[in-house]
Amino acid sequence: MLLDLVLISMTGLIQIICVLVGVAFLTLLERKVLGYIHLRKGPNKLGFMGLFQPFSDAIKLFTKEQCLPLSSNLLIFYLSPVFSFFFAILLWVGVPFFTFHLNFNLSFLFVMSVMSLGVYTIILAGWASNSNYAMLGSMRAIAQLISYEVSLILILLSFLFYIFSFKIMDFQVYQESTWFLFIFFPLSLMLMVSFLAETNRSPFDFAEGESELVSGFNVEYSSGGFAMIFLAEYASILFMSLIFTLMVLGSFLNTFMFFIKLSLVAFFWIWVRGSLPRYRYDKLMYLVWKCYLPVSLMLLLFHASWSQYFVILFM
Q: Fewest CB atoms within 10 Å of the CB: 15, 86, 118, 145?
């Protein structure tokens, strides 16, 4: 029992360190890709081709002066970024790498529950800042996240009806012959767009509309608080890329090909940001309530009946 606890603690620590290093180099990749999209070089001064730029940014952020709005609720103002970062790291607990690291049977349900908790940190960060801009940014972000969670759950249920399991690793087993990308092609595209909206990324980054909201719910944050919100966002992007790769692109976790696919999906996030303009907010809401919700409901009924047909057929 003691050995198991030590193993879980050690693998968890290694996983967190790897996630943070991955986030650091994802920021560098984003700045490089956006640079080449804009026909410029991007960071290239620190180290070979700017390899040390993420670590320089981290040192700069954590050593800057911490600004405190006098009228803010200080305790919640401090704790919101910490919990945001904690939830982003907690998501990775359900994904085992080379070990049995918490590979439990309800891991998918656990991931969806933790993803939903991230909503509270955003609304609390905006409210505790006691700033109109931060509050407006957090309210827009919350409306967007809650709206897309509804259709996202229905989309994910269609996949779960096929594997009859809440275990993330079972997606690997069911995609040995063919990827779910081909079986669920419309749903896979809807899933990717919903993930983009869930992570507040372009073209759905309405929490950060510079023209009207300055920087959104994190406008009053600086130094470590801003860095934690930033880390949480990019850790979520990496995790969504991992979930999309496992669910749709059918790759085994312990293979090199899996990490190639994961990198390509993460690159897609950046590519979209550099290519598409920001969507209009009312069109975003129209898209989810008038398009995605009815389509995902109809496809859920179709896939549920189809999977039940196969159960009866092979009994």
A: 86
pLDDT digits (tens, 9 = 90+) for 202-213: 788 776 766 666
Cα dihedral value 196, 202, 207, 209, nearest 10 = -170
Calculate the alpha carbon distances from 231 to 62, 63, 73, 113 in Å: 12, 16, 23, 20
Q: What count of Cα atoms within 13 Å lies in the side-chain half-sphere of residue 189? A: 5
CA distance 129 to 34: 31
pLDDT tens digits for 267-299? 999 999 888 888 888 888 888 898 889 998 998
pLDDT value at residue 264: 92
Nearest to 128 by CA among 86, 83, 65, 64: 83
CA distance 148 to 136: 18
pTM of structure:
0.89
Q: Is 259 exposed, middle or buried (0-12, 13-18, 19+ CB in 10 A)?
A: middle
Contact 266, 235 (CB under 8 A): no
